[in-house]
What we know:
By secondary structure, the protein is of the alpha/beta class. It has helices at residues 17-20, 26-29, 31-34, 54-67, 69-72, 82-93, 109-121, 136-143, 161-171, 197-210, 263-277, 282-294, 297-322, 348-357, 388-415, 432-444; strands at residues 40-41, 104-107, 127-132, 148-155, 158-159, 178-183, 213-217, 241-245, 257-260, 328-329, 337-341, 360-361, 363-364, 378-382.
Amino acid sequence: xxxxxxxxxxxxxxxxxxxxxxxxxxxxxxxxxxxxxxxxxxxxxxxxxxxxxxxxxxxxxxxxxxxxxxxxxxxxxxxxxxxxxxxxxxxxxxxxxxxxxxxxxxxxxxxxxxxxxxxxxxxxxxxxxxxxxxxxxxxxxxxxxxxxxxxxxxxxxxxxxxxxxxxxxxxxxxxxxxxxxxxxxxxxxxxxxxxxxxxxxxxxxxxxxxxxxxxxxxxxxxxxxxxxxxxxxxxxxxxxxxxxxxxxxxxxxxxxxxxxxxxxxxxxxxxxxxxxxxxxxxxxxxxxxxxxxxxxxxxxxxxxxxxxxxxxxxxxxxxxxxxxxxxxxxxxxxxxxxxxxxxxxxxxxxxxxxxxxxxxxxxxxxxxxxxxxxxxxxxxxxxxxxxxxxxxxxxxxxxxxxxxxxxxxxxxxxxxxxxxxxxxxxxxxxxxxxxxxxxxxxxxxxxxx
Length: 449
């Protein structure tokens, strides 16, 4: 005879207040739904690791298993293997950043780097600046330490420096509470926009003037599909703290990233990392070393770029064809994501369940803002993982969901039951097709170098 056994959580009143305040990642919550074969996922920024050649993976892993087993399976130094650091220095030299191994720390993905930086520098109430919207993983890492995160909006050329200046004026020069500004200048997550060279230069000037640190997160920098290379912020100032990762150009499962920073900064972060994980995986570091030194990884990178460009083009073409005129979206020159903005009266969070029923997922926009109070009428959609055919079908399904939602609002508006926000008045809105044509013309002019 079976008996019921009830278990009660006896730790509820013992949980730290900072954990109680944490929000789960919307992307992680959608992973289970995305595994359903009937659902096309536009929510996760997963690289397509099927593009990696088996021969390159075998070469790198065999070297770790056969040639360097005694090192690869042992504890390592907290800041990582010198050989791996040198590989990353070589990679960064290609994009215009000069660094020495002593200025590099290996981390368990760039996500650990974000947490280590937060733990090292943030006290409750400290001010952190970021793009708005910004990477939700960064918000999770920072929020655990209870800062005051203030978001600066962006446009097609990245973070708006005029609005940053206004916020800095409110904060004041030399304010000890202003710790750092976090930015993803290349193909921003979730916005897909790239910070223009002039704005990068201006950001460095403002950091010097107001005395704050700049944290540059660059996971997508090598995945450019249009235009020319733009120098990283780190190439403009040695004081910038630069975060890199192999997740988008090799394998996210290896969880290998790095920090480049002044030695004084790394010394403090090293203390924190000792208490976090002692050291990263030496095995993974050896695999990474041999992949980037013993295999034709540049050829594989070209395959990544070609494939992702085709998928981006398929998504943008489908958006042009199927999305309603009330919607607008970014047109990324690289990376994984497109940011879609709908009329203010649409809540993409409440619409998600209907989208799932129609076989498509996306990430609601409020998760990319601290507190989730903004971005409710926006969404992030990813083009990196699905085939062009699936992307077209997914956008078609999503457009049907949005149009159904808009039809309801259109009926209320026509009946006078809802007042249309000024920004959505037809007389104040440029026709969507004409607007997108104008944007394409601006892109063709090559405004970025």
